[in-house]
Write a structure and sequence with these properties.
Layout (H helix, E strand, L loop, with lengths): L8 H7 L5 H23 L10 H5 L3 H13 L8 H29 L4 H5 L9 H18 L4 H15 L3 H4 L6 H6 L8 H12 L1 H8 L2 H17 L8 H22 L9 H10 L2 H8 L12 H4 L3 H26 L3 H8 L6
């Protein structure tokens, strides 16, 4: 279904009958942040200790925002998570979240001459951890909604999110009752992001109330001041424990970006060229995510100019241009692959035509 301009976002979220244009655009923007980060890290190697990079600040936002959007689009009004719904849901998600990424993962390991077993039992899984962890979050969410179908389900989601985020604390992380190799296989180190996934589902469920909150000047004022002042003056180094400060920075950053896209949704509508490009990118995030690792030159040690001579703005501009080029190539390759309904289904989860 083609996206259309939404004149009453709250009403559309209630009915769930149309794609939300600014959400698709936001997904495209988030995918751009992911690719740009990988360029900065893997090509220019500017994210080490003591380095200065705009990407370091975007790192506070990009993955929390990705999981927030994933939770946001998951929630549907009127869905009852009974056995039938759970079976239908995971029957659809297993090929997309597990089988397809595993095929790309194994191919990437072979092409880059990496160790398969070591990569499987690693937290990052050569970069292919996102879809696997998102599948785990689907399991957490479905389990809670299955057993708790009243308002306490929302509370339990929030509590679990806070508890999992707390595992970033070294004191708690060291006491997780799982063997190290099992913890790495399950990518437990990424479970803290469930907080933002849960937040996304709750925001969509209670969007009318969220809209009223976003439309109050004081709320966004506090979020903006906290985010920029904390980063500018490193308040987290002395005023707030680092884990809590990092969580609040990610939270306020997600709120600011989400509020911006909601406020400027006319700019990102299908009536604007920028909107059409970002929406199309947002609808192809899985394709880009799975393909872009093959196009990034890893450990490009000859490019040291940005590491030896920090130039945050120029480095981000260079990373952005390369990211846009890689995304464009990914979209081209994706469209070629999608010429085959069989490959489109098993590689990108496209529904088989009836």
């Amino acid at each position: 279904m083609d996206s259309q301009v939404i004149t009453n976002p709250g009403q559309e979220l209630q009915t769930g009958t149309k794609r939300i244009e600014y959400i698709d655009a936001l997904r495209g923007f988030t995918m751009f942040l992911v690719v740009a980060h990988h360029i900065s890290n893997l090509c220019f190697n500017v994210l080490g200790d003591g380095q200065r990079s705009i990407t370091l600040y975007l790192l506070q936002i990009r993955m929390p925002l990705f999981f927030f959007i994933s939770g946001f689009v998951l929630y549907k009004v009127g869905v009852v998570w009974d056995v039938k719904q759970i079976v239908r849901f995971f029957k659809k998600k297993i090929p997309v979240q597990l089988i397809s990424p595993f095929l790309f993962f194994v191919t990437f390991i072979y092409v880059k001459d990496k160790n398969l077993i070591e990569s499987i039992f690693s937290d990052a899984k050569a970069g292919y951890w996102f879809t696997f962890v998102l599948f785990e979050f689907f399991v957490f969410y479905a389990t809670i909604r299955f057993f708790v179908r009243n308002k306490w389900g929302d509370v339990l989601l929030a509590v679990l999110g806070v508890c999992l985020y707390a595992t970033r604390w070294n004191v708690l992380k060291d006491h997780i009752p799982l063997p190290e190799h099992i913890s790495a296989f399950l990518s437990v180190g990424q479970w803290y992001l469930f907080l933002f996934f849960a937040l996304g589902t709750l925001v969509r469920k209670h969007f009318a109330a969220v809209e009223r909150l976003l439309d109050t000047k004081w709320f966004l004022t506090i979020c903006i001041l906290f985010y920029f002042l904390t980063n500018a003056f490193r308040l987290g180094n002395w005023a707030i424990p680092q884990v809590i400060c990092g969580g609040l920075l990610s939270l306020t950053g997600v709120i600011i970006v989400f509020a911006f896209f909601r406020k400027k949704q006319a700019v990102f509508s299908s009536e604007r060229r920028l909107g059409r490009i970002m929406q199309y990118t947002g609808r192809r995030t899985l394709d880009i995510y799975l393909l872009h690792f093959f196009l990034i030159p890893l450990n490009l040690n000859i490019v040291t100019v940005f590491k030896d001579h920090p130039m945050p703005v120029l480095e981000f501009a260079a990373s952005s241009l390369i990211a846009i080029l890689i995304i464009a190539v990914c979209l081209l390759v994706s469209n070629v692959i999608r010429l085959s309904p069989f490959l489109a289904h098993w590689l990108f989860g496209v529904k088989n035509p009836k």
